[in-house]
TrEMBL record:
It holds the Pfam family HGSNAT_cat. Residues 75-209 form the Heparan-alpha-glucosaminide N-acetyltransferase catalytic domain. It comes from Dendrobium catenatum. This is Heparan-alpha-glucosaminide N-acetyltransferase. InterPro entries: HGSNAT_cat. The chain crosses the membrane at residues 116-134, 146-165, 185-202, 223-241, 328-349, 361-382, 388-410, 430-450.
């Protein structure tokens, strides 16, 4: 079950992909409604002779659909292709990022190709939510379903990224609850999905959409929520006072080495003294954070920077401190990314012509990119670990442009055959992430060995320990 299947609504969407383009441009769903109307007229005529008119629900059920799903359009092929490209990029980063700094995560400020993977996923989740909840007949039931799906995704993430599996260098498993990692990629997606879904279910008006302005007016509460989250993030990041703090690193002889980090500042965005890390240390606990932070590849912490390496002789005390790249405060802006994707999904719902959709995507994408570079220029640097506002804007802007480009190629001009591999990967994104990115497949293969654990296939090809 891919991530789309995890969050999509249940129903009877048109399964024939050959009708996808027709549905997008001409409104294939409306044709179904017309056919339903003809059936209604026929049954009404029959009832006038000697029968009662059945309810609309009964008539629609003749097609095997509920009223809310009778007019549902098929999923966009471009969304699957976009998700597949993101999965392929994720695999490339995991496998080749250690050899090429250009596709590895930035050690701190700045962005690389790898830094777009997480926002791409969040953006796509938002777009999908706009299609999933375009018609909601029971808000409470939809909310319960969203909560249940988010909990499932969070639980999967906790199992895979909490430390239960020890990786390809160890066949053992299990995690000490005193050191389990609470946050992670899937956990962040689950939180963003839940908040965006609840916002979509409950925060919309009855405004008729016929322009970009009316679209903003219809979903003005959602835009307000996004603005409120952004303001909250900025207030906490730049307003909280970060005091001095301590941590310890366990040594092989059972002893521990203690470090003290001097801060006593407010509004700092350096690796040592930022409010993002402080909030995680206070709420989650330093033992529950990620043990190999990205800033370990900075010049201050690695003689092989931008790659991992031994500590310099004058390395600062914070270099070995845990830091979670999917922490609590930074997740606020991840939710904003999902909400931005949700607004792009609304464009698909309310605008039926290709040129209108692309125009409504290009304008906000360009504005987001311009805002990102302006913020970076004035000192609010793009930073994935902190998920800064400028980073949110640049990744969301690129996501919007990429969606428009893929949509133009795949759904408008029909270049689908050349994208079949990406489409397949997009439909099975969660399975691929679990098997490859979380090392479940390598661990499974490594479990078969000859006489002793080190004699396994992974060790033979140079991947295992």
């Amino acid at each position: 079950m891919g991530i789309y299947e995890l969050i999509k609504d249940d129903g009877c969407a048109i399964a024939d992909p050959s009708k996808n383009l027709l549905a997008l441009e001409e409104g294939f769903a409306s044709k179904q409604v017309e056919e339903s109307g003809e059936l209604l007229a026929g049954k009404a005529l029959k009832s006038s002779i000697g029968g009662a008119v059945p309810p609309v629900e009964t008539i629609v059920s003749d097609f095997g659909c509920s009223p809310s799903s009778a007019a549902r359009s098929p999923r966009l092929v471009s969304l699957d292709v976009f998700r597949g490209i993101t999965v392929a990029l994720m695999i490339l980063v995991d496998d080749a990022g250690g050899f090429c700094s250009a596709i590895n995560h930035s050690p701190w400020n700045g962005v690389t190709i790898a830094d777009f993977v997480m926002p791409f996923f969040l953006f796509i989740v938002g777009v999908s939510l706009g299609l999933t909840y375009k018609r909601v007949s029971n808000r409470k039931a939809a909310t319960r379903k969203a909560i249940f799906r988010a909990l499932k995704l969070f639980a999967v993430g906790l199992l895979l990224q909490g430390g239960y599996f020890h990786g390809i260098h160890s066949l053992t498993f299990g995690v000490d609850l005193l050191h389990i990692r609470f946050m992670g990629v899937l956990q962040r997606i689950a939180i963003a999905y839940l908040l965006a879904a609840v916002s979509e279910v409950w925060h919309r008006s009855d405004v008729l959409v016929d322009s970009g302005y009316s679209l903003m007016k219809k979903y003005r509460i959602q835009l307000f929520v996004g603005g409120l989250l952004t303001s909250t993030y900025l207030f906490l990041l730049y307003g909280l006072f970060v005091p001095d703090w301590d941590y310890q690193i366990p040594l092989q002889d059972g002893m521990s080495k203690f470090y003290s980090v001097k801060c006593g500042v407010r509004g700092d965005t350096s690796p040592a003294c930022n409010a993002v890390g402080m909030i995680d240390r206070k709420i989650l606990g330093i033992d529950h954070l990620y043990k190999r932070p990205v800033y370990g590849r900075t010049k201050q912490c690695s003689i092989d920077s931008p790659f991992s390496g031994p500590l310099p002789a004058d390395a600062p005390s914070w270099c070995e401190a845990p830091f979670d790249p999917e922490g609590l405060l930074s997740t606020i802006m991840a939710v904003v990314t999902c909400l931005i994707g949700l607004q792009f999904g609304h464009v698909i719902v309310h605008f039926k012509h290709h040129k209108d959709r692309i125009f409504q995507w290009m304008i906000p994408s360009s504005c987001l990119l311009a805002c990102a570079f302006c913020l970076d220029f004035v000192g609010m640097h793009m930073n994935k670990a902190l998920y800064t506002v400028s980073y949110t804007c640049v990744t969301a802007g690129v996501s919007g442009l990429l969606l428009a480009g893929i949509y133009l190629l795949v759904d408008v001009y029909g270049f689908r055959r050349s994208m079949q591999a990406m489409e397949w990967m997009g439909k099975h994104a969660l399975e691929i992430y679990v098997l490859l990115a979380c090392n479940i497949l390598p661990i499974f293969v490594q479990g078969f060995y000859w006489k002793e654990p080190r004699n396994n296939l992974l060790n033979l090809i140079g991947i295992g320990s």
